[in-house]
Backbone:
């Protein structure tokens, strides 16, 4: 009985032992397979991989097929070589690069590797320190060729620089073109100005004949008086006074034209002009003038201040003058500003009685005399129309109202 | 009777809106003719012409109410052979109308020239 139990135990143990060895074998052959596969991956992977012994002066312990292909050495040759035969950098440069990589917390180094055929390539080396079971240090490196990438980078850099240069030269060219345009604009403005001036000169010379004729006649009369021995002192004095008066008026005209066409108009500087302020400055604290201002837009307009000042000076002067002759009430000026499409419309309305309807179309003519035999030789309205049309590209019109005159000025925004 | 003496018996209508000019011209023309009548614009000139039928009419061009050219046209409708002289500062405007008149005088005017034109008119 005891023997039977013992035999059973022995049989069971025997089977267990067989099972144990069977399973153990199976387990080890699986582990071997994985290890082998791992080695195969290393060997057959497309990436260039090396196992390096740092303690044997960088001896190459293992290299894969890709490495052999890449460097051009056979595996046999590679195993006799050190990584230092491949890396072109001097040992201190290698150290520098390693330090720099650490600083930049990069997990790779930028080196230059020499191939068997002498070509030198830019490479990125990803290195991982490993340890054998015997605690031996081994360096596992994967090498990426980045020469083409770098070339591409350099190319982009070069192209960028070229673009930058082109941009700069373009800027210079634009600046030059702008300069030329400005010069042309100035020339045009000057041309415009001289055209306006020659027109003015023509009109004035036309109308100067009359006072010049009178001066001529008065002096001729003096000559006649002397010739005829008719030395009437009073008559001679009268002629002398007349000559003086006419000459003074001619001189006054020149002053006025100078005032209108002084240098500041040549380069027509434009700025934001507050029309209300300009008018306030003209009337100052004249108690006889009331100013009402209406605006549905900004009271600042972008234009030439000199022209605007000249225009309103003349309009206010005319209104005051008319107010003194036509009515006796306070001068009320209604100024309104509005936008109409691309134009700024300025309306200037007074209560000075207006102009005779038959004269209204002619008041912008030079030297137009308001009323028969009147000596109101208005040059002012002619001059301001000239300024508005030629220098501001605008226009000016007048219209009688119930008790005064409404002047409308339109200028482009 | 020589021409100057004949001229001495003639009347002249002078149409001009500038008073100073009128004052002197009246004196100068007056030296050569019997009488100088004055009007200060075309309308007045035409009326005076119709009333007095002067021998010679001297007129400016630019004037209020009715200008010299309009007045000349009206006078020509009545009397085609009327002696008319334009006396103006605006030669170009006068030349445009030269066929309508006997002569054109441009301001400022010399006495001798005026005298010659007046003599030619009679």
Residues:
């Amino acid at each position: 009985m005891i023997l039977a139990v013992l035999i059973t135990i022995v049989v069971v143990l025997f089977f267990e032992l067989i099972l144990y060895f069977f399973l153990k074998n199976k387990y080890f052959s699986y582990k071997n397979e994985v290890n082998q596969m791992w080695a195969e991956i290393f060997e057959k992977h497309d990436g260039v991989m090396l196992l390096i012994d740092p303690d044997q002066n960088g001896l190459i312990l293992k290299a894969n097929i890709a490495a052999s292909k890449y460097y051009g050495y056979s595996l046999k040759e590679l195993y006799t070589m050190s990584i230092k035969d491949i890396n072109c950098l001097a040992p201190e440069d290698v150290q520098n690069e390693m330090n720099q990589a650490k600083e930049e917390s990069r997990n790779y180094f930028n080196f230059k590797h020499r191939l068997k055929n002498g070509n030198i390539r830019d490479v990125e080396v990803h290195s991982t320190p490993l340890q054998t079971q015997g605690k031996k240090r081994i360096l596992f490196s994967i090498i990426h060729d980045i020469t083409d990438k770098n070339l591409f980078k350099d190319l982009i850099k070069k192209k960028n620089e070229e673009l930058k240069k082109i941009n700069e030269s373009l800027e210079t060219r634009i600046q030059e073109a702008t300069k030329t345009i400005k010069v042309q604009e100035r020339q045009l403005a000057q041309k415009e100005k001289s055209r306006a001036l020659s027109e003015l000169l023509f009109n004035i010379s036309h109308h100067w004949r009359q006072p010049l004729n009178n001066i001529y006649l008065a002096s001729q009369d003096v000559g006649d008086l002397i010739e005829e021995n008719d030395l009437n002192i009073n008559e001679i004095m009268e002629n002398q006074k007349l000559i003086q008066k006419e000459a003074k008026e001619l001189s006054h005209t020149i002053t006025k034209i100078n005032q209108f066409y002084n240098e500041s108009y040549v380069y027509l500087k434009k700025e934001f002009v507050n029309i209300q302020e300009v008018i306030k400055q003209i009337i100052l604290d004249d108690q006889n003038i009331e100013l009402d201002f209406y605006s549905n837009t900004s009271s600042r307009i972008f234009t030439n201040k000199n022209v605007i000042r000249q225009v309103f000076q003349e309009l206010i002067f005319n209104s005051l003058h008319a107010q003194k002759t036509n009515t006796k009430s306070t001068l009320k000026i209604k100024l309104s500003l509005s936008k109409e499409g691309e134009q700024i419309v300025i309306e200037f309305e007074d209560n000075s009685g207006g102009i005779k309807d038959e004269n209204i179309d002619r008041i912008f003519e030079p030297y137009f005399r308001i009323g028969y035999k009147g000596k109101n030789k208005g040059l002012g309205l002619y001059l301001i129309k000239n300024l508005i049309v030629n220098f501001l590209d605008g226009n000016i019109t007048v219209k009688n109202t119930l008790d005064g005159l409404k002047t409308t000025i339109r200028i482009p925004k | 009777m020589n021409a100057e003496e004949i001229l001495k018996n003639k009347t002249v209508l002078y149409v001009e809106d500038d008073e100073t000019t009128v004052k002197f011209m009246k004196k100068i023309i007056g030296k050569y003719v019997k009488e100088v009548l004055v009007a200060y614009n075309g309308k007045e000139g035409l009326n005076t012409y119709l009333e007095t039928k002067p021998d010679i009419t001297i007129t400016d061009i630019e004037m209020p109410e009715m200008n010299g050219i309009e007045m000349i046209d009206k006078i020509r409708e009545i009397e085609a052979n009327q002696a008319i002289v334009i006396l103006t500062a605006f030669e170009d405007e006068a030349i445009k109308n030269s066929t309508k008149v006997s002569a054109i005088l441009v301001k400022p005017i010399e006495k001798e020239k005026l005298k010659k034109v007046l003599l030619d008119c009679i």
Notes: Chain B has a mean pLDDT of 91. The first strand of chain B starts at residue 11 and ends at 15. Strands of chain B lie at 11-15, 35-39, 56-59, 83-88, 103-106. Residues 14 and 59 of chain B are 6 Å apart (CA to CA).
